[in-house]
Amino acid sequence: MSNIHIQGLDKTYPGTPPVRALHGIDLTVAQGEFVALLGPSGCGKSTLLNLIAGFEFPTGGTLQVGGAPVEAPGPSRGVVFQEAALFPWLTVWENVIFGPRVQGMPKADYEGRAEEMLRIVGLSDFKNHLPVQLSGGMRQRVGIARILTLGSRVLLMDEPFGALDAQTRLTMQELLLSVWQQLKPTIIFVTHDIDEAIFLADTIYVMSVRPGRIQQRIEVPLGRPRTITDTTSEAFNTMKRDILHLIRHDHG
Ligand code: ADP
Ligand code: MG
After folding, report:
1. pLDDT digits 0-9 by tens, 7-36
2. pLDDT of residue 190
């Protein structure tokens, strides 16, 4: 079943002159697929993610999620940015249950799930901590647990590990793979890091600039589950070389 279906998508931001951010984007994402959008700064990755989220609207073409056009942001699509937007005065637990609680859901309908999601992201022992007491990676985990508790089946991630140090970043990539392996959400993961895209995704869309286009769709030949050892394999290095070649020969 196709979960996200995008055809001939255009996005031009108004202004003098107008900015043509995306042109002729075709993208089909299956339920449970892990997709990476890979490209240099300014190629329209965030714009594409924001259109899928419903924060922005297309100026041409069609964009459907679950068979219906996206008309507004909604809990079915959870967004993770570079910094987790947590409430600093609420504990980890209160942050994670915030959405269902303000929606007036009965506790019995979300508390078990919240416990489960905190366990999956490895934060069961930190329920009573405040965000300021956590590392950057842990705050991102709270953000992920929060959208999973809301019941999001589509995760839209915009360079979520970009602000983390290399070691933490790797730990977070492994954690995300484990979350995906257990729950099989659809993930659209924006990055400009080739290694990150190959390590995580089933399918990589390489984008290019001015205007943002999809240059190539590439299927990642690595098996699942993946471990860090896979990033030193022959298949990994061949793929990395191919993508570098593709990017180097793109002159917009
Ligand atoms: P990326 O995330 O790949 O770095 P963006 O989607 O942020 O790229 O930006 C794509 C292009 O659209 C850039 O030229 C950027 O300056 C422009 N842009 C992004 N958001 C806006 C906006 N709200 N108004 C005008 N131009 C924008
Ligand atoms: Mg961006």
Report:
1. 999 999 999 999 999 999 999 999 999 999
2. 98
Most informative mutation of 25, 46, 159 for ligand 1 (most atoms within 8 A of CB): 46
Q: Could you tell me the distance, in angstroms and rounded to a whole number, from the CA of residue 107 to the centre of ligand 2?
A: 36
The tokens for 105 are: 């859901």
pTM: 0.95
Among 9, 19, 191, 192, say which to mutate for ligand 1: greatest number of ligand atoms within 8 Å of CB: 19
Helix, strand or coil for residue 171?
helix
With a 6 A CB cut-off, is 43 part of the ligand 1 pocket?
yes
- For 72-228, where are the E strands, in sequence order? 77-80, 154-158, 186-191, 203-208, 213-219
What phi, psi does 244 have (nearest 5°)? -60, -45
pLDDT per position as a tens digit, 206-229 = 999 888 999 999 999 999 999 999
Strand order in the sheet with 154-158: 77-80, 154-158, 186-191, 34-38, 203-208, 213-219
Q: Any alpha helices (H) in 106-165, and if so which ranges?
A: 107-120, 136-149
Strands (E), 14-80: 19-30, 34-38, 60-65, 68-69, 77-80
